[in-house]
């Protein structure tokens, strides 16, 4: 029986360089990253058709190989990275090893599933609207959405360029930090400098009550490490997270439509209904709507600078709930996606790094606490995760 | 190599009754009609999942079997009958034997293809928005959209109940009339009574110039048979056909959304992009928009009564152009579908019967002239076709 975390067909493997900081580690790559000589599937049966085979590995794949890690396979993704819950109506839905019978989260669903199952040590994902953060939370993994623009996107299927990032997963903080040092090209500091921890009350209020309760001890633990106490605050004005969520959707989807329209016009490809529907709505957005959304993004960015550039760390729930069960009808799936979007939009709009910590459970299922820092402070977040 | 007019898999065949008016004829059934004990595929891979197998044949299938015809297979259809050009991104696009390298028209694409190729003598189709009329025109066949409600729809996958009809195809008028007598349960009159022929100038003006030129001699031939000359008139006020086309889309799509929504909500099925997009737009229609469209339909119905209930026959081009080539990009396919919709909307909105005559060619490809009569005068249209 095939491991449904990986794409159908023979497993695509490559040895790593003989030595290096990641020697001995295995990794999987979401099927959005190019591997030279093999089609990139992108989770949709009509994506590879008519495209030339990649001539070179994606930057992130090459980076891990050069550091000594071995490629153990390419993993299932939501169709062209559009989806946050992890189902795929063509390739199947990877299982959630940490919450049997539940969705794994997506769109980097197979990468998270393979790491959570212990099949690989680490895995590459992409995160435009939450695609590393969400499966990290639902599968109980360390996962990061780095600062936007920090990691080269060469050889990665673009979705929404002003949101697209490359992230990775690991089961333990030490492995996560080893990979982080390679991906960021920067040593992970041993020491964690004192800093205030901001608890975003408006973000917590969007989570289910048991999730809030499960995460508060983790917040205290982080605050203890940072040594300057916890300050309750809000990310936005009342209701502003909902505005940011909606406007993030407008910008991201309009960029996705621009990315995928030439292919859609030429091929009229097959999609699950919800994926096609969301693209169709994006097609009907007007320039005025998109311009309004961009002005809202500027407000969120100003807020991020004000909150974070003094060195504070911000804590929010990564997702508002634990892994939803398989088999939900589409309207319920849509409600889940919309609620998740509210929590993922802050880092998405502002480009700041966000790391999800797998240190809590609610109802027997994992739930992530996210730490957010100012742009460029990716290594600092990793250091905090490792020191906890 | 499989005959791409038929659905993939073993050919589903059934003998006809030993004797009867259709003894010796073979027929194919669009895969929207039930055959007892076999899944109805409806042109979409996720339609049959979880549905019980049909316990009995669809009314139309049983009717032809009882009359002595033998079932020779089930044919490819556009997904859940949504489509007018005949492509199917899952099952493939049946070829157009009369226009190689071109689309066959749809949604009864495989039925028309099999008849045009000579594989079967006749074939069942459905016509909600043009799904028998259009492939008749593009493949050079006799085909009818009967009076709405005339033929029982039992055992046929419903799309838009106030538009859905069951029709059939044949290569020659004699066979077409034999099948018609069985399907209508009414003898086809030998004599054709004198009647005025109305040439709808506004409908002709929507067709390409070579199509208009190709059809005018057929109009004259029909007028000669009817013996009361040709009267040039218009179906609507200036611009009204465009209004009818748009409002027909609103009503038909809103009914299709109501038909398919429970399945879509439960299964989030796979579709070609254009099919999902059109359903998604239907989902966003408001009650007020639908009510407005229904009031426009009343105006079209009043016009049909005024024009036709005195016994006149109306002539319009079945399609505004001959079969488009394969491989067009989606925006061009959409423009083709929209133009076709303008000509198909009159009978769709008003429920009158429309028969397409395969008596003309333009640029070496078939083009149909449609005759339209008052509700219930199906047999009269068939008699005219046979007498020409």
Automatic annotation (TrEMBL), chains A, B:
It comes from the Bacteria. Pfam families: Amidase (PF01425). The keyword Iron-sulfur does not apply. One of its GO terms (molecular function) is transferase activity. Gene3D superfamilies: Amidase signature (AS) domain. Residues 19-187, 284-381 form the Amidase domain. Keywords: Transferase. The keyword Transferase applies. This is Glutamyl-tRNA amidotransferase. It comes from Teichococcus deserti. The lineage of its organism: Bacteria, Pseudomonadati, Pseudomonadota, Alphaproteobacteria, Acetobacterales.
């Amino acid at each position: 029986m095939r491991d449904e975390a990986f794409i159908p067909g023979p497993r695509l493997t490559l040895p790593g360089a003989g030595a290096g900081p990641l020697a001995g580690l295995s990794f999987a790559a979401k099927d959005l990253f190019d591997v030279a000589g093999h089609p990139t599937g992108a989770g949709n049966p009509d994506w590879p058709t008519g495209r030339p085979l990649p001539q070179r590995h994606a930057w992130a794949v090459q980076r891990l190989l050069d550091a000594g890690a071995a490629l153990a396979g390419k993993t299932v993704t939501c169709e062209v990275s559009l989806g946050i819950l992890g189902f795929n109506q063509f390739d199947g839905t990877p299982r959630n090893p940490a919450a049997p019978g539940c969705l794994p989260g997506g769109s980097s669903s197979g990468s998270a599933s393979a790491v959570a199952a212990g099949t690989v040590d680490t895995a590459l994902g992409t995160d435009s609207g939450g695609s590393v953060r969400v499966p990290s939370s639902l599968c109980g993994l360390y996962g990061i959405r780095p600062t936007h623009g920090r990691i080269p996107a060469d050889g990665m299927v673009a979705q929404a360029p002003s949101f697209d990032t490359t992230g990775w997963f690991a089961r333990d903080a030490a492995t996560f930090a080893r990979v982080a040092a390679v991906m960021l090209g920067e040593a992970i500091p041993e020491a964690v400098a004192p800093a205030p921890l901001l608890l975003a009350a408006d973000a917590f209020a969007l989570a289910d009550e048991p999730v809030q309760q499960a995460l508060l001890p983790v917040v205290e633990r982080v605050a203890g490490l940072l040594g300057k106490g916890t300050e309750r605050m809000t990310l936005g004005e009342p209701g502003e997270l909902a505005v940011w969520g909606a406007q993030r959707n407008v910008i991201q989807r309009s960029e996705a439509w621009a990315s995928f329209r030439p292919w859609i016009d030429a091929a009229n490809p097959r999609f699950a209904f919800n994926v096609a529907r969301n693209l169709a709505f994006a097609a009907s957005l007007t320039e005025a709507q998109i311009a309004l959304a961009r002005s809202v993004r500027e407000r969120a960015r100003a807020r991020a600078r004000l909150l974070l550039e003094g060195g504070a760390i911000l804590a929010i729930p990564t997702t508002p709930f634990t892994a939803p069960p398989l088999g939900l009808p589409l309207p319920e799936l849509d409600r889940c996606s919309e609620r998740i979007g509210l929590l993922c939009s802050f880092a998405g709009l502002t480009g700041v790094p966000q790391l999800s910590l797998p240190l809590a459970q609610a109802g027997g299922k994992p739930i992530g606490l996210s730490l957010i820092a100012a742009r460029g402070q990716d290594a600092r977040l990793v250091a905090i995760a490792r020191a906890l």
